[in-house]
Amino acid sequence: ATWLGVMGGGQLGRMFAHAAQAMGFKVAVLEQEEDCPAGQVADRLIRTSYTDAKGLEELASLCGAVTTEFENVSADSLAALAAKTYVAPSAAGVSIAQDRIAEKRFFVDCSAGSGVQPAPHKIIASEADIEAISSDLLPGILKTVRMGYDGKGQVRVRSIADVKAAFAEMKGVTCLLEKMLPLAYEVSVLVARGADGAAVVYPIAENVHRDGILFTTTVPSDHVSDAVAKKAQDAALAIIAKLDYVGVLCIEFFVLTDGALVVNEMAPRPHNSGHYTIDACITSQFEQQARAMARLPLGDVRQHSPAVMLNILGDIWYEGESENMREPAWDKILALPGAHLHLYGKAQARRARKMGHITFVAPTMAQAQAQLAAACAILGIAL
Ligand code: ATP
Ligand code: MG
Ligand code: MG
Questions:
Q1: CB 3.0-4.6 Å disulfide test: which of 187, 245, 342, 361 passes with 305?
Q2: Which ligand is nearest to the CA of 153?
Q3: 139, 154, 179 — which closes off a domain?
């Protein structure tokens, strides 16, 4: 069998392995952490750091293609792999998504064709940059240029004094100040592109975040007009083509209260907001990634059922604010028609840690929403 390799041992690697193995591939995972979600199901686990030359060599010589499930794998590691095997997405595409400055610049370049702009922003690399902030960027959000996720590495700021304090807090790492925009709602678009340049785009998804972490994804959402959906999907297709990207890419957008569409950021991999595709689309985002890596035709992206995805965080293992822990009532969840439970095999439930997700599929969105409400009542999650 052909081996496919993954950099990173998290849940995205685990769900990728499930999809790739179902198609007959063997999967190798490179990850340092013991007992990681992807390592538990991989055909081989190479337990080492993402920058270990020997580990990279082993992964590359075993695998016909390698991908990444962790967006901060160093571009140098991907380039080292690419010297020995096929790597998708390439180091070039991944490195743009790892750096908010490069990413914003790239989005501005793409906007000429699509008309979709990123939020107004300014690079903050020094005290002098702070003095030069124009007042129309405030209130804003100061974000670290690299390594931020789930709202970590960002601070909301109202004044120049706030920016100074927040920048000092970030210990001098380069940041980006973004204007705080009036959001009506948030959406994301998954796109995939094959080595032959053929691209497919999934239905647009509406995302609700809580405390900076994705809470639910709803597809289709009745907030999203056909015009907004088409504009976002066209922008996503333009972005993936301009990146000359191979594999699955997720692009997050904001829809503002005046209806304008703004591009936020992209993730060079399958994405949490695309988990619904496992249970609700002809081809899941993970199968699509395996197809793209193996240079096979991409699959049909059509959605066959309305779907709502609920992220399961470690918080629900705790009884209220106490330290007492118990297993959530999965038997009651699985008694709900159309509920698909996905747990990632993480040994320790910690607060704010993504432990799994549930996708509710139903003949109508109203029924899927009713199942979501029932599940939240069972699990003690306020809707
Ligand atoms: P992810 O986990 O999706 O990678 P992240 O930590 O990289 O998240 P962003 O997506 O940049 O962070 O921002 C997190 C959330 O903060 C957004 O989903 C949105 O709700 C809010 N937000 C970010 N930028 C802005 C903005 N310019 N105006 C208003 N809200 C914003
Ligand atoms: Mg991000
Ligand atoms: Mg985001």
A1: 361
A2: 1
A3: 179
Q: Which ligand lies nearest the alpha carbon of 211?
A: 1
**Cα gap 39→22, rounded to integer Å:** 16
Whole domain around residue 136: which residue ranges? 120-179
Instruction: For residue 148, say whether it is annotated as part of any ligand binding site.
Output: yes
Q: Are residue 175 and residue 127 in the same domain, yes or no?
A: yes
Tell whether 153 is in a known binding site. Answer: yes
User: What's the chain's average pLDDT?
Assistant: 96
| pLDDT tens figures, 185-240 | 999 999 999 999 999 999 999 999 999 999 999 999 999 999 999 999 999 999 99
Q: Are residues 174 and 211 in the same domain?
A: no
Q: pLDDT class for 62, splitting at 50, 70, 90?
A: very high
Residues with CB under 6 A from ligand 1: 119, 141, 143, 148-152, 178-181, 183, 186, 209, 212, 252, 264-265
Are 79 and 8 contained in the same domain? Answer: yes
Distance CA 157, CA 303 (A): 40
The answer to whether 180 is annotated as binding is: yes
ipTM score above 0.95: yes
Cβ neighbours around 93 below 10 Å, total: 23
Q: What is the pTM of this model?
A: 0.97
Atom of ligand 1 nearest to the CA of 183: 29
237 domain-assigned: yes
For ligand 1, mutation pick of 103, 136, 141, 255 (most atoms within 8 Å of CB):
141
Identify whether residues 276 and 334 lie together within a single domain.
yes
Nearest-5° Cα angle at 149, 346 to 357: 40
Domains contained in the chain, number: 3
Give burial (CB, 10 Å; 0-12/13-18/19+) of 369. middle
